[in-house]
Design brief:
The chain is α/β, with parallel strands linked by helices. It has one domain: Glycerol-3-phosphate (1)-acyltransferase, CATH 3.40.1130. The chain has 8 helices and 7 strands, in the order αββαβαβαβαβαβαα. Strands 1-7-6-2-5-3-4 form a 7-stranded mixed beta sheet, sandwiched between helices. It starts with a helix and ends in a 6-residue tail after the last helix.
C-alpha cells in the first residue's frame, strides 16, 4: 500500500469499526498475492471501501472517468488504485485497463449487478463481469455485504449507524468455461458470459452473515 491508500484504508477501518460496528468474515480466503477479482453485491456507496477495508492487501476500484478530470480528485483516485471507466461502467477502454491490472497481479472489485439495488434485494447479474472473467485468468472471490442498504441506501441522505458485515467466499475457478470460450462460436460465447455471471451471483447469494 502506498501512503495515501494506507491512510484512507486506516480511516475507513476506524469508521466501519466505530460508527457501523462492522464484522468481517472469511478475509483469509482472499489470496494475498496475484490477480484476483472480488465480485460483490452492490447496495450502497459504502460497499467499495468496505470490501477493500476488510483485506490486508490493496485493491483496485472502478471510478467514473469524468471524475479524473478534476486535478485534486483525479490524483487522489489514482493514489487509491482507481480504474477510470465510462458512464455505463465498462467499455473497451475500461476492460483493457482492468485486464492489465489483473495481469500485473492486482486485486480488483467488480459488481455483477452493475448498479446499486433499489430495494435491498440481490439483483440479476449482468453479462459484463462474465466477459471480464473469461478474458482473464484470475480467480473470482464472491463477496457479500450486509447492512449497507439499511445504513446508506439510495433513499438516505446521510449514513446511519447500522451494523455492516462483509463476508468473503471461497475462490471460484472458471478454467473449463475459459477453455470452451477459446473455441466456441459467438452465440455460445455470449451464453458463457451470462453463465459465468449467474454462477458468481449464485455464489454471492449463498453467503450468510456469520462465521463459516
Amino acid at each position: 500500500m502506498n501512503l495515501s491508500y494506507r491512510l484512507g484504508w486506516t480511516c475507513f477501518r476506524v469508521m466501519y469499526a466505530t460508527y457501523f460496528r462492522w464484522r468481517v468474515y472469511g478475509a483469509e480466503k482472499v489470496p494475498l498475492n496475484g490477480g484476483v477479482i472480488l465480485a460483490s453485491n452492490h447496495a450502497s456507496f459504502l460497499d467499495p471501501p468496505l470490501v477493500g477495508s476488510g483485506l490486508k492487501r490493496d485493491i483496485n476500484y472502478l471510478a467514473r472517468e469524468s471524475l479524473f478530470r478534476f486535478p485534486g480528485i483525479g490524483a487522489l483516485l489514482r493514489s487509491w488504485n482507481a480504474v477510470p471507466v465510462d458512464r455505463d461502467g465498462g467499455g473497451a477502454k475500461g476492460l483493457k485497463v482492468i485486464l492489465a491490472r489483473l495481469l500485473a497481479g492486482n486485486a480488483i472489485i467488480l459488481f455483477p449487478e452493475g448498479t446499486r439495488t433499489k430495494d435491498g434485494q440481490l439483483q440479476p447479474a449482468r453479462s459484463g463481469i462474465g466477459l471480464t472473467v473469461i478474458k482473464s485468468t484470475a480467480p473470482v472471490v464472491p463477496v457479500r455485504v450486509f447492512g449497507t442498504f439499511e445504513a446508506y441506501g439510495r433513499n438516505h441522505k446521510l449514513p446511519r449507524p447500522r451494523r455492516v458485515i462483509v463476508k468473503y467466499g471461497q475462490p471460484l475457478n472458471f478454467a473449463q468455461l475459459r477453455a470452451e470460450a477459446a473455441t466456441c462460436d459467438k452465440a455460445r460465447l455470449k451464453e458463457i458470459y451470462q453463465q459465468v455471471a449467474d454462477e458468481i451471483m449464485a455464489a454471492i447469494a449463498r453467503l450468510e452473515p456469520r462465521e463459516g
